[in-house]
Design a protein that fits this description.
The chain has 17 helices and 70 strands. It has 1096 residues and is mostly beta strands. Strands 2, 52, 53, 54, 55, 56, 57, 58 and 59 form a nine-stranded antiparallel beta sheet that branches. Strands 6, 12, 13, 14, 15, 16, 17, 18 and 19 form a nine-stranded antiparallel beta sheet that branches. It starts with a helix and ends with a strand. The relative contact order is 0.10.
Amino acid sequence: MLCLCYSLICHFLSKYDTIFVKIKYKYRWRLIMKRKILVGLMSLTLGLSLASCNVVVTPNGSNSNQMGENTTSGGNETSSTSMTQVNFTGENLKIGQSFKLLGTVTRQHPEERNEGSPAYPTYGTSIPNITDEQKDALLAESSYLRSSSTTYDSMDKDGNLYLNGEKLNRKLYKHTTASYNYYGSPDPNELALIKEITTEARPGGNHLTGLYAPAGEVITVEMTEEDLKNTGGVKIEIGQYSQNNQLNNIWKDRNDFSRMPEMGNEMLANETTSYVGSFLGGPIYITPNKQCTFTVKISGALEYCHFIYGLTTEEEFNRLKEKSAPYFDLEVWDKCVRHSGPKAYANLDYDNLNKISAFWLSVSNISRQIPMGSSANLGIDFLYDPFVAAGAAVAFVGRNWCNLPPDWMNGALDYEGFMTNGNWGPIHEYNHHFQRYGFVPGDEVTNNALSLLSYINYTQISANRPNLDGWNKYLNPATSFKETLEQNTKGESTSSLNTYADIIHTFGVDTFIKAAKNGKGQGGADTWYKALSDATGYNMNYYFSLLNQTVSDEVSQSYNTLKPFIPVTLNEQTGKVINGNEIVTVLPYPIDLDKDYTIDLDTSLTMPQGFTYTIKNITKPSNGTLRRNGNILTYTPLGMKTSGKIKLTIELKNESLNLKSEETIIFELKPQYQGINKITYTYSGNIYNSIDEAEKANFKDYTNISTEIVNKHFINGISYNQICIYHGKIYMPKTGDYTISVRTSNRSNTRLRLGLNTKEYSKTISSPRNAPINLNDTNVTFTVTKGDYIYFEVIIQSYHPDGFAELFGGYDNNLKSISTGYLLNDDATKAPIRENSDNYPSSYNGLSKVIPNTNARVISYTESFASWDETTKIENIVDGDISTSYHSIRNKYITTEPFEFTVDLGNAYTVNTLMITGYNGNSRQNPTAFKLYGGTNTDNMTLLGEYSNITYSGRNAAVSFKETYLRYYKIVITDTYEHRYVAMSELQMAIKVNDNLVNPVNANYYVKNNQSFTKEFTQAFYGYVIKGNGIIILDTTNDYFGIKILESNAKIKLTINGNEQIVKFDELYYIKLNSKNNHIEIEILDNDVSIESFIY
């Protein structure tokens, strides 16, 4: 009778929705790339093990005998009136690490020496005229210093080296070259630390520690027995390693030995206390041999300056940037980027690093829409190194890293610089890892097209039209298409960047990404034609003929029913209307203030040869007035207000080709101060002997004077008997010492005047033509604050057909050409950087709550499928250890009969997923077809699902079924990969929550009296929790809701759309709602709660 009552109760409870869980967690998620999703970031499969398991299902409005409280329905809605709101900010980004400083230890300074090679490099400077003998000696010594199977594999606390357990006659020391590695050396008086690092390991690659091993000093690594078992040991990498643990080694064929050939050392910490070190020193990274969450304690190392997006606070960073270790890392979890290199070239402004991290995250999310050539489970590393393996910089596609020179790092981490002027080199190398599409997948063009997508979506470079040059010019639709038409006249097939830019500026970023995906990693004219036509809804016959690209008749004819794509651009274009949708790819076109602006459509429109156009319609601007006189448009601005979108609809026609199309172009005009002022005086002869003389005479007696607005730092073409004056100001994007000078020649007398935040110039540089200046010797330095302006005036008195002057400037005496985006008119102000949201965020979901096999056992099985031997028993599939396995007996094949077995979990749980860890030997024996049954006792098990063609990711597979309350499950296996033996390592039941994980900052928090909420950094999904006591209010448009906390035995009052209930739960509460529009209030009762995430 008791069993019958128990079964009925379990059956009754299984019908209801509310689920209370305290269990082990394993986070698994898939990427959901969708515009306008508020929550989510780049992600990958990871594991997080927590506590024991207890699942109770109770009905809404009923009592749970185990944990439930009375639920009352009604309108007692909690109000936040008279309470104080507490706001939090944070990045919707998974961060799998937390750190604790535990104290300091005394350093033991080592002996400094070397192994006697004939020559050694100073870091960053190659050995001049290096010989083969010197190379061989350096390569041999470099290998000798590194741990390996032939040198040494461990050390003791005193630095004595061992190989295979045998003590060697060798000891760790500081190599002489280490004194200037990474352009610096740690302060010998700086205290070493004890630091605890907890890491939820990524599927592969190493993880930051934020610690630096001084050369020759022994580092202690400690782990618990449990962590040692779970990790299988932790590899400790010291030096400049990529995330996938590769070094940028120098080989003999190269002559640029600008450092020791191998700048790293890897050792295995495989005991509860291990000792590691490096002769050369460097940053420390950690890699577990098995993916898990683990903690290590590292003693004896120094902190170095590093920044983890979303985790490193401003207070912490301001402390770290004062550390003496000469290295720097910036990391954006968890599949995004790491910028790694000498601290001397890093940008150490905290606000800037936050913004540039968000930018690189957006770049990553947009590029990861495209089929990758590198591993999708890892981010991309930028290793800034004086040795560059190929060219100016190189991307190692397939290895997930790029090799760049050190001075590229500052620009790659300069947010304002990227937003205003771009930085093509780093983003070009990055996108080499995402270029498998187009005419020639993997060439030097498809990656550039991806860079263009990020420039369009996330920068304001296009606001500098029409003064765009270099790669930036492809942000101008008219420039791009003119290049296409020019190439067409040469008769050769073309697939250069303009051909992709034409598509992007016509159909938009989203459609271009769709086309790139359509190719499925393949390319060629036929594939790209199909991909484009399928994505755009246009046939590409005419456009491909412009590109002189040959497409097969089979492909081209299959799209003849679609509208032909006939490209046309307007100089002032900002977008197009395609299939009724506004596609905007360019910022408003700048025009002069207080002046009419004229557009002559006959010259401003660019269309293929043989086409004519007819104006069909022009819409009115939102601000200002637009007048039309035939094909000439005149716009009168209204102050500094932008015109708003103006739509020009034209009909294109080519009679000879029988082609006709109606196109709508969007343009928008923005009045503003334009560039810098340039005045040129022309004289009949050489009437002035110097600039001083000309200024005293106020430049009189000229035969002609011309004025114009320019937007460049380099002024040339100043001819005989001309004097040119140009003046403006330079925006200071950060605080520091800014040095400025001017490049001159013997063609002219030149003078540069400068003033900080004033046109009352206080500094002057003069350069007579008989003594041109050296930039590094003759310059002026100002101490500036971010937002300052340096006003300048340059005077050129030419004695040559091409007199010139060029402004140079930079921080920390690093002079280079001044970017045009920082050059402004005297009266202008720098436009604020527009805030851009990530258009392709990824969301984390698929929270799997795994039922531990603590009390599970196999209670029956088909005896003819006995185990292969004593080590492969059937019990191993529920022993909680994936290193053990079951394997069926020799010569017993699955084709002879099904293999059936039943598992008792020991308790009843609500589950909807069976997780399978495949055999740790031959994967061909893994089950691929079976039936699954489940129930609360062995007599009433029902069919949960029938599965075939099961696929595995590595060793892992999972099958899902409807949420079911069960204690027992039975599997009837009918096939395996090889159709012979049956083998597997572990089976686990789980409940998988498919809804999105939501950052806890995305809610409204209210407190009163002694209540409080605080943001606390700890080991949690987002790197922190919101901890406290009070009321939380949020709204959802989902029919499920959950809350994940760190504590057990939480008690809350939950009010959903006015209906309240008291809820007790352990670590996770998850409920099915009756509506998709829900107003939720959570009042925390009793003790503080640490909120890790919401789920909806």
